[in-house]
Design a protein that fits this description.
The protein has strands spanning 21-23, 29-31. The chain is largely without helices or strands.
């Protein structure tokens, strides 16, 4: 189920569980600790940029081995 993460502002996932991140005042994805996440990492194509690996975590569950489009908690 492709989802436009560049426009998404949902605070919960499709099943009602809380998302790992929210949009900040700059409209960027941010986790609870204030770390901005890489938006490209959330897409099905991912991100190859190794200069900001700390920003590579799933906006849905927080795991670092996939982005939102690859999350097992995403709507199928």
């Amino acid at each position: 189920h492709p989802h436009d993460i560049y426009k998404c502002a949902a605070a919960t996932l499709w099943d009602g569980s809380p998302a790992h991140c929210r949009r900040n005042s700059k409209n960027r994805l941010q986790d609870d600790s204030g770390q901005e996440l890489c938006s490209n990492w959330q897409t099905s194509h991912g991100c190859d940029d190794k200069t900001h690996d700390s920003k590579h975590s799933c906006s849905g569950c927080g795991r670092k081995d996939h982005g939102a489009q690859g999350c097992s908690r995403a709507q199928k």
